[in-house]
Write a structure and sequence with these properties.
homodimer, Nucleotidyltransferase, domain 5, 6-stranded mixed β-sheet, 17 strands, ROK family protein (chains A, B), ROK (chains A, B)
Chain lengths: 339, 339
């Protein structure tokens, strides 16, 4: 059976998630590979290109035709105009013209380049927890903390491609040192790594994880409760800043720490309710797409390049058409650098 | 000579600023009246209606025709859908259907209702310091601190009309009590009132103002320098949060405290430069329209209701047309409740 599809790549600091995505956003095929950061930036580029090439071959074999387009999400500063990655600390990249490299490797198909978190936010907005929500913050609590901001159906990139860096909002002035060089950043207090570090120190097991901390909280361990409450309190303070500035309708929370479910969400909702004064409390929702958000988002970016893409996903496509609402609610779009 | 014009009203907690505004954004006439908050909410409503009525008469007499439309900016929560002011602490209003009341009083002309700060941001974006800037924060440092956020040429209202409340971002956890009920809000540390209060305490003159503080700083008074530096430091911390979250291209600073000019701007730029890590430093600019921003913005909202409004101001009009860029740079729009 011939199935029209696109290649989707979510390139992370340690692993790459890839998918073949159908016109309705269906995941037709998934694959994982290490990024191989330790082999240097050129090797990372080659690993990305080879992964895409192999997916193209796989798609042609399984679905009777080659991918119609490709989308790739990258952590870092993406220049949508030139289609290059200006800078990525996670990948060791500087000025990598990924769009043209990928398009060349894939026989000239259109390629969309986007920011990984914003691609994930796009997917949550169109296919996940943000369906029909015009204004939301999509937050990932993992090794770090970052966010995608959706305003009136569009994922905001900022003037220089770095909007949404909520992980580096200072919530505890003079607090713990953060990887960014600052102190007391949200990320240094409420990321999965921060919770793991604090819980490891509290329980004496250097290998303890954030998941272990959540389990200890559920088992009623008061030390774990203190660690957990500290993280939730910092998170609520950081989110309150976003609520005060942006007045979003929903907060969509994903990433490793969100795996704790109500152990996280119940106290987080309570902490936010305690903090709002004049602000309207947004709905706090778990992300719906899990680890697939980034690759699905990359797939949506790719579909948006095709004339039949927008129609078949029932959503608005690129920036120019962003204000158009679909029947199922406001559609979501994101900056994408099309070739 | 017949001159086409609109009525523009900027309703504040103590005074109302009104204007007749020409199609090119020219201020054809200005007037001020007290709001009369002490006489109760109904009296405030009547004062607004009478002011508008008198402006209509004035315009007809001076310019040979009655105003073609009216715009009004109000501090508080504006419901653009119903054209009413849901809540305004400053005016004592709750659910005042201002748009229909005004239109009735003005013989049925179209009336636009907007938020005062967002109207001011619209004016700075189209006619002032933000001309040609796609993404900016317009900040007013007065009795309180509030902001309008411009994203891709649109002034963001938020999901419930309360976006931009930067004055209530907490920058000193556990700090001074704020009028909102919180502690350590930016407004309690860096507003003109906060500076006046601190300087009054430091110099022993209970009547001292923020302007006095600025003059004492310029005269080299070390006590004044301490007060001033504390406010600038809090302001830079608050703005850094906006930069981290929103990545704006420019910060446009107005309000009473901005009257200090380089006494404020030089240390503020230095404090921001000191704080950015990965963030791109936005341009920090003084607001260009001063006290007229709010009434000019109300006038623009009114012009945007008229078929010839957008064309004659050379800018995009309402939300639907917001992404259209004009020849002089991206145009700016704002939510407006048209009748």
């Amino acid at each position: 059976m011939r199935v029209r599809h696109v290649i989707a790549l979510d390139v992370g600091g340690t692993g790459m998630k890839a998918a073949l995505v159908g016109p309705d956003g269906a995941l037709l095929h998934r694959a994982l590979r290490p990024t191989g950061r330790e082999h240097g930036p050129e090797a990372v580029t080659e690993a990305v290109l080879r992964f895409a090439e192999d997916l193209r071959v796989h798609g042609e074999r399984e679905f009777g035709e080659p991918a119609a387009a490709a989308g790739v999400g990258v952590p870092g500063v993406v220049d949508a105009g030139t289609g290059s990655v200006a800078y990525s600390a996670n990948l060791g990249w500087r000025d990598v013209p990924l769009r043209s490299l990928l398009s060349e490797r894939l026989g000239g198909v259109p390629v969309a380049l986007g920011h990984d978190m914003r691609a994930g936010g796009l997917a949550e907005g169109r296919l996940g927890a943000g369906r029909g929500v015009d204004r939301f913050l999509y937050l990932a609590l993992g090794t770090g903390i970052s966010a995608a901001i959706c305003i009136d159906g569009r994922i905001e990139a900022g003037a220089h491609g770095s909007a949404g860096e909520i992980g580096h909002v200072v919530v505890r002035p003079g607090g713990p040192a953060c990887g960014c060089g600052g102190r007391g950043c949200l990320e240094s207090l409420a990321s999965a790594s921060a919770v793991a570090r604090e819980w490891a120190a509290a329980c004496g097991d250097p290998g303890a994880t954030a998941e272990d901390a959540a389990r200890a909280v559920e088992a009623g361990d008061p030390r774990a409760r203190r660690v957990w409450d500290g993280a939730v309190s910092a998170l609520a303070d950081g989110l309150l800043v976003c609520i005060t500035l942006l007045d979003p309708r929903a907060l969509i929370v994903g990433g490793g720490l969100a795996g704790a479910g109500e152990t996280l969400f119940a106290p987080l909702r309570a902490a936010l309710a305690e903090r709002v004064v004049f602000q309207t409390l947004p709905t706090v929702l778990p992300a719906a797409l899990g680890d697939n958000a980034g690759s699905l988002g990359a797939g949506l970016l790719a579909w948006d390049l095709l004339p039949d893409g927008a129609a078949s996903t029932g959503a608005a496509s690129t920036e120019a058409a962003a204000s158009v609402a679909s029947a199922t609610g406001p559609a979501v779009s994101v900056e994408a650098a099309a070739r």
